[in-house]
Amino acid sequence: MRRQRSAKIVATLGPASSAPETIAALFRAGVDVFRLNFSHGERREHQARIEAIRALEKETGRPIGILADLQGPKLRLGTFADGKVRLKSGTHFRLDLSRKPGDAKRAPLPHPEIFAALESGTELLLNDGNVRLKVESCGDRFAETVVIDGGELSDRKGVNVPNAVLPLGALTEKDRGDLLFALDAGVDWIALSFVQRPEDVAEARKLVANRAGIMVKLEKPAAVHRLAEIIDLSDALMVARGDLGVEMPPEDVPPVQKQVVQACRLAGKPVIVATQMLESMVHAAVPTRAEASDVATAIYEGVDAVMLSAETAAGEYPVEAVTMMDRIVRRVQVDPLYNAGLHADAAARPEHTSSDAISAAARQVAHTIGAAAICSYTTSGATALRAARERPGAPILALTSSLQTARKLALVWGLHCVHTRDVTNFSDMVNRATSIAHREGFAERGQRIVITAGVPFGTPGATNVLRIAWIEG
Question: What is the mean pLDDT of residues 227-233?
Fold first, then answer.
């Protein structure tokens, strides 16, 4: 099943999309990676979804990626005596550690770590930023605030502290349990929520122990300020614009998105743009023109993947949403301005390594000879990542003997992953690559392909061979 596009589609599974037949329909509509949101649902539900995905993978013979998205340290208010209150701008409001239900003058905030980080002048955002408070005085158990922007509050609404680094890690006890469950179930990516500092990523990496790729969700301004360090420690990034858009002004989110995409492309790390991409399709069969433009903008920037959340997890038109996203991506990628833009800013100049030299040469050679495809032999996935970093005009076949690697690379721009046995010599290398390229529909007889590999064969990260081969009749 060859995709007629380079950028990938990630779709979230939920109540509207958990039946095996729906998962199959989503895959056929264009999903490359399925996201399991551990903020919702029971583990048994996630296990059933994983089993359905793996059965579909076996049926279709195509590697499918699975992303486990951990909830992270979500901060919430306590409860209110009457269920909800409405705060008026200019009034005073107290937050404290008392468990007594709240009212229009105070509310319980059962998070001592928040009070430890507050100081006079700090702003607090409640209910996804709909209510804004400013701290006037505070202690280790309370904060006296003034309401800057009033609005409605109800039980357990979220709390954001945009300009403070809170003394808590990115993994709660629930996350640690979910992480072990997800790894044992064989997921390919672990997404970390509410990362604030590089140390959060390092902690997760020890727990994951190379059993899956680590994806950092950028949701906190503190993480954006240390972007280079976080990219260095992670395997992929997600621009999670929901919480990011709560914690910073809306006008700052698009420049941050572009900054993150460019930095990831430079580093050769996969990057996803997510949240509210086709939000109106939760209840409508077609998106707004603004939403179509939003998806297109991410594709023009050169992202590896775009993601659907509520649209497929809880929406009324999950398959239609994937189909629409696929149509938008394919339309952008046939625009001559798309390829011109990918290389206009030289975002991915080769590094001074043999692997990058071969990958850059493969792109240039494929362009010069009009190659039908680039076939990249890869063990760990590093070779295929460097090939994708170049954003070549020719499609890339990532040939690997590791099914785990093939599944993980399903997220990456331009890669069509094929699980195949290791090659043992040059003749085997050429014969296998030409046979697969023809079988998978990438090259016809008489066309040429470019092959990259590492010698000794099967050595991770040792790309040092480039070969041009004909598809023989």
Answer: 97
- Choose the catalytic residue: 217, 265, 363, 432: 217
Alpha-helical regions (H) of 135-236: 173-185, 198-208, 221-225, 227-233
pTM of the prediction? 0.93
**Active-site annotation holds for 217:** yes
Mean pLDDT of 207-232: 96
Q: Does the annotation count 156 as an active-site position?
A: no
Within 13 Å of residue 349, how many CA atoms lie on the same side as its CB? Answer: 3
Told to judge if 275 belongs to the known catalytic residues of this protein, a careful annotator would answer yes
CA distances from 87 to 114, 158, 467 (A): 21, 16, 69
Catalytic member of 76, 258, 327, 330: 76
Alpha carbons 99 and 442: distance in angstroms, whole number: 63
CATH 3.40.1380.20 matches 354-470: yes
Active-site residue, 54 included:
no
Identified catalytic residue from 35, 49, 220, 391: 35
- The domain 8-73+169-337 is placed in CATH, from the list 3.30.530.20, 3.50.50.60, 3.20.20.60, 3.30.450.40, at 3.20.20.60
- How confident is the model over 107-145, as pLDDT tens digits? 999 999 999 999 999 999 999 899 999 999 999 999 999
pLDDT tens digits, 389-404:
999 999 999 999 999 9
Please identify which of the residues 275, 383, 400, 434 carries the catalytic annotation.
275
Greater model confidence, 304 or 354: 304
